[in-house]
Amino acid sequence: MTGTEAHDSYGEKPDPEDHNAQVGPQRATPPPSDDTGGPSGPNPPPPNTPGTPDEPPRIPMPRASVEDTGLPLPEPLPAPLFLEHRILKSLLGAWALAACSPEETTAVEDHLGTCGACADEALRLRDAVGLLHPPESLDLDPTLRTRVLESCLDRRPPRIPVPEWATPYDAETARLDALLQDIGDAEWHAPVRLRWFEGDEQTSRRTTVAGVIAHLLTVDGLVALTLGLDDPLEAPAETPTPAARTEAFWTTSHFPPTRSVRGPWREQAHNLVRTVAFAGGGSGRLPVSYGAFELPLRDSMLDRAFETWVHAGDIAEAVDYPYEPPSPRHLHAMIDLGARMLPTALAARRQAGLATPGQTRHLVPAGTPGRSLRLEIEGLGGGEWLIPLDSPGALPSPDHEVAHIALDGVEFCQLAAGHVPPEEAAAGQLGDREAIRDVLFAAASLSRM
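Below the sequence we write its predicted structure tokens.
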């Protein structure tokens, strides 16, 4: 390096008369180091050194006081309450009910940490408060979906509305699908016992959760066939009855049904609702054959909604899942269907020799008043129905009322599903005992697999 370069680099010129002068600034030689860092090496010099004059110093500036900023000063912390023992003890009840002020709550809780007697009393009071508020079910209100849909439809009516008689099936399949979404793979194989009445005796069949969904899939297929949709059965059953179709599905399956059956059942349910919506309300008169009997499509959709709810309850019981009854409006429609089917069920039992003969010993001509039973259904979805006893074509008449039965709405549906013995179903009975027995057993005979 030349002297000019040294002057330009260090800004200092050596004195020629000073023999001890050195080129460059007078700095002590640093000790040797293994590191080869430098101004351009991997370890640059620390800031605020003479070698880096352009960097600002790292000494923090003095902080401004909050009083100089014009901002409001923070509120001072409230002084803790100092209460006597007797006052703190009197506040335990209010503390258990969460009715104390924040200051009182802090004082009581601080006291509980030092007083064993008050801590025990507070624990007893808190347990007593828990009894005043029984735990509520975490399951959604069954009317929530209906209320949300009604609110949405009031704001924006659908271009293709679902017929009123198909909405219970739409709602119950949606509720069952929500239940199936919540259960795990292992619970699809949980044992479920299907129960129904044959004659005067209760019978049952053991299956699994997946087997129940397969049963619903095959019986809903009867409605699908009426509407021109695909049959879920790969091979036709010997007879088109719900039981025969279910047995055919279980028999032809290579493996026991698993959760994979949920997809076809769910798709078929959506297709049924969509098809009846496009077909319109007039399609409700189409006959749906169940083998031994027929129902118009509007009643068949109610029947499928009823069975979906009943078997959803069977599944919920098997997997310990909370499940509520249908909305009152849908429950009333299901009860009304059962009440309208009772005269035909009574006639079938009479032909089979299972019903007691009437006092007239012969059937009443169609269109004339005959003996009647008043069926009173209590609770949400309830009402009153007059049931003709002597002939399906007879006119029910309050002047010819011979008996009165009172049942809870859900209890009546459980009776019609074959889940409750007829002798234990009625909450109140008055009048002709034989007529009451016939009606109760006729309601149980409505059940099937």
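The chain is about 40% helix and 10% strand.
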